[in-house]
């Protein structure tokens, strides 16, 4: 069949698949009672066709997770079910780093940011966005896109991935200092999303990277920032950790408890930080509850994290469809005080993104 005939056929099949997936999520799932529409979703991805194609052209997502079909209407549909009034859009890993050529990376970042800004401009109360950056080990390119995204497009913050480059360049690495300095100068809100580790070898065929490696990667990046003093050096940056901080809340005592008895000089020599500085850094992070609203995880956050540092996230559209009604059910059933539920749903996010303060109100 000639390509000019085949292309519209394939396009039509893709559109049909997208509508079918959206129908299953909308009508085929058993949803809990409709919650109030007042949430600000700080972990909500967008996947325009040109980005999905770029990932496919590069051989697919190295994490092993399939790139989902997405459209603005699918975001609006899930927002209605979840009680989300505003979704702050972001591009998940691998992002533009899937392309090795620096120029092509920069071009894809710019195109993604302009696409997100256009969606935001259509309705400021429905969408915002965290800017997408090229590989931040290329400081000049990253800083140029930060400037354009923040000054021209008025982004709500930026997305950083837990690791960059072919090696273990996590977010506390000294090579990234110029980018952190610029983010600090601008007092930017930073959304940290995990990416695949250097070694993507699967334990078995069922264990794609997002299953457990992504939470571990968030922990690696967070502890790297703690031991490198990143948050202490750049206090104007507000850092959101995905998925309740990965495994950080469970492992932080393994790190902090021995430091409690260590003299500061010895602690700095051995670990790059002291007990008090490390504890302060842990509590300085913000933690979203994307795929993390089971009662055990929520209680852990409430026990360890300042209550004004817990924010809502859905991880749409990358989670399996049953995850959305199930985690919503757990979140709505949890015994929060009304004050704490408002903090998590929208008030804490309004502090991070002040422009949303005048938009979000319970409907």
From TrEMBL:
SUPFAM superfamilies: Metallo-dependent hydrolases. It is an enzyme of class 4 (lyase). One of its GO terms (molecular function) is metal ion binding. GO terms for biological process: secondary metabolic process. InterPro entries: ACMSD (IPR032465), Amidohydro-rel (IPR006680), Metal_Hydrolase (IPR032466). GO terms for cellular component: cytosol. Keywords: Decarboxylase, Lyase, Metal-binding, Zinc. The keyword Zinc-finger does not apply. It comes from the Eukaryota. Its EC number is 4.1.1.52. It catalyses: 6-methylsalicylate + H(+) = 3-methylphenol + CO2. Residues 40-349 form the Amidohydrolase-related domain. Pfam families: Amidohydro_2 (PF04909). Belongs to the metallo-dependent hydrolases superfamily. ACMSD family. This is 6-methylsalicylate decarboxylase. It comes from Lasiosphaeria miniovina.
């Amino acid at each position: 069949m000639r390509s000019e005939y085949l292309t519209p056929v394939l396009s039509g099949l893709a559109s049909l698949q997208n509508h079918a997936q959206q129908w299953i999520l909308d009508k085929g799932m058993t949803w809990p009672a409709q919650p109030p529409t007042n949430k600000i979703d700080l972990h909500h991805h967008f996947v325009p066709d040109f980005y999905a194609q770029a990932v496919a052209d590069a051989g697919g997502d190295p994490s092993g997770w399939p790139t989902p079909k997405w459209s603005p209407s699918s975001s609006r549909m899930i927002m209605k079910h979840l009680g989300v009034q505003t979704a702050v859009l972001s591009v998940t890993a691998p992002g533009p780093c899937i392309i090795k050529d620096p120029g092509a990376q920069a071009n894809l970042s710019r195109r993604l940011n302009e696409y997100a800004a256009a969606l935001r401009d259509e309705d400021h109360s429905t969408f915002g966005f965290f800017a997408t950056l090229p590989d931040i080990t290329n400081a000049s390119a990253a800083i140029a896109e930060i400037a354009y995204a923040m000054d021209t497009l008025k982004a709500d913050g930026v997305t950083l991935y837990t690791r960059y480059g072919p090696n273990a360049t996590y977010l506390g690495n000294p090579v990234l200092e110029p980018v952190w300095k610029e983010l600090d100068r601008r007092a930017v809100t930073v959304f940290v999303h995990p990416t695949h580790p250097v070694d993507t070898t699967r334990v078995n065929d069922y264990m794609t990277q997002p299953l457990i490696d992504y939470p571990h990667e968030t922990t690696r990046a967070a502890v790297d920032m703690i031991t490198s003093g990143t948050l202490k050096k750049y206090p104007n940056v507000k850092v959101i950790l995905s998925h309740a901080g990965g495994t950080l809340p469970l492992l932080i005592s393994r790190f902090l408890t021995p430091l409690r008895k260590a003299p500061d000089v010895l602690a700095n020599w051995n670990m790059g930080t002291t007990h008090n500085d490390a504890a302060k850094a842990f509590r300085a992070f913000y933690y979203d509850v994307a795929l993390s609203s089971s009662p055990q995880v929520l209680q852990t956050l409430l026990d360890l994290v300042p209550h004004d540092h817990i924010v809502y996230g859905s991880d749409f559209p990358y989670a399996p469809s049953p995850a959305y009604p199930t985690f919503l059910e757990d979140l709505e059933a949890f015994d929060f005080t009304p004050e704490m539920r408002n903090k998590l749903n929208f008030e804490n996010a309004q502090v991070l993104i002040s422009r949303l303060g005048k938009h979000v109100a319970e409907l």
